[in-house]
Amino acid sequence: MELLFSQTREYAEERDQRDELRSYRREFYIPEGVLYMDGNSLGLLSKRAVMHMVEAWKQFGIDGWTEGDKPWFYLAEQLGGQMAPLVGAKPHEVVAAGSTTTNLHQLLATFYRPCGNRTKIVANELDFPTDIYAIKSIIRLKGLDPEQNLIRIKSEDGRYLREEEIISAMTEEVALVLLPTVLYRSGQLLNVKQLTEAAREKGVLIGFDACHSIGAVLHQFHAWQVDFAVWCTYKYLNSGPGGVAGLYVHEKHHSHSPGLAGWFGSRKDRQFDMDHTFEPAGSAGAYQTGTPHILSMAPLSGSLEMFAEAGMERIRKKSLVLTEYLMQLIRVRLDGMGFTIGNPVEEERRGGHVALEHVEAVRIAKALKAEKVIPDFRSPNVIRLAPVALYTSFADVWDVVDRLKRIMEERTYERFQQERGVVA
């Protein structure tokens, strides 16, 4: 990767001129005068396909299920096929469905099969809460005690996990492992390949929550033989708040019946037979439950077109360059101001955002918003800044650090209360 660094804004502008993905910035609605650095929490709205599904509804009515260039009846599988290259899967291994949490419940209900001594699930203490809630729920539904059957890997520093410790926990008592691909606070990218190989050697099923990596990090789930994965699409994939999620199931498991059956998981050619005997689709589509959320799929459809055009290799490359540039500016321009970079700096261990730590993080985040910089605060002391490859410019990154420098020099953050909002 090219070694980046110059403190001048002119350098950032010159980098933007050489950016081969710069044209995609025009494809998004970026609020006037705003520096949007929260795409790892909610991506911006793209201009493609937002009205496409509405127009189909207007034109075809109920026949939209089978008419038009994107019939709704097959849309979940079609979008799954478009997402498959982002995680290195085969098209029939991915489907757009549900939400992250409902998909977690679905796949845990399917793959957590405690038997004999193998009753435990391995997770970690830095997990996003919904993963732990789902795990505890499914353990209880199996008639077991979460206190006895949930293993949470400890973090030595509150930021990172060590793959070696996770692998050591994969004992003969473990039935399943569920981990994030990227830790939501620190942005640490786990070694998915290493962990999956270890789980396979130990006879343990392994799944991943890819919410904080899909669209920013390229995976190879099929080749690595990851058993299953879930993710949301409203972060780097720009599907909108509460947009339909995605799931992956390796084809070697497609003969299994889903733990939570629903009629949209049926074989397409038999679904409208209305038979009370469930015949699951021979693909990831079997893990759908209810009717797809067609209107919320519209922005995802448009966004995925751009991912196909740009290619995940180029997107990942630019993401790494942007976060490296951001870290370089922070080290030099904010030196001595109390900031610590809390994410891994190595490319192979870094996700799509920079985790900037400061004792006054909550007030600094509020001051940034007052300066029209949109960050993301995570308790107790992390400001997450996510330059997104498709719509963040190098000049944006420079301007963010410049405004942050001014906030610290003028101590304007002291005007704000040291407490987070209800929604952080």
Map the helices and strands:
Layout: H1 9-18, E1 35-36, H2 52-60, H3 75-87, E2 94-96, H4 100-111, E3 120-124, H5 129-141, H6 146-149, E4 150-153, H7 163-168, E5 174-180, H8 192-201, E6 205-209, H9 221-224, E7 228-231, E8 246-249, H10 294-310, H11 312-333, E9 340-341, E10 354-357, H12 361-370, E11 373-374, E12 376-378, E13 382-385, H13 394-410
Parallel strand pairs: 1-11, 3-4, 3-5, 5-6, 6-7
Antiparallel strand pairs: 2-8, 7-8, 9-10, 10-13, 12-13
Write structural notes for this entry.
With 424 residues, the chain is α/β, with parallel strands linked by helices. It folds into two domains: 127 residues, Aspartate Aminotransferase, domain 1 (Alpha-Beta Complex), CATH 3.90.1150; 258 residues, Type I PLP-dependent aspartate aminotransferase-like (Major domain) (Aspartate Aminotransferase, domain 2), CATH 3.40.640.10. Helices cover 35% and strands 12% of the residues. The strands form three sheets. Strands 2-8-7-6-5-3-4 form a seven-stranded mixed sheet, with helices on both faces. The chain has a four-stranded antiparallel sheet with strand order 9-10-13-12, with helices on one face. It has a two-stranded parallel sheet with strand order 1-11. Strand 5, helix 8 and strand 6 form a beta-alpha-beta unit. 48% of the residues are buried. The model has no long low-confidence stretch (mean pLDDT 95).
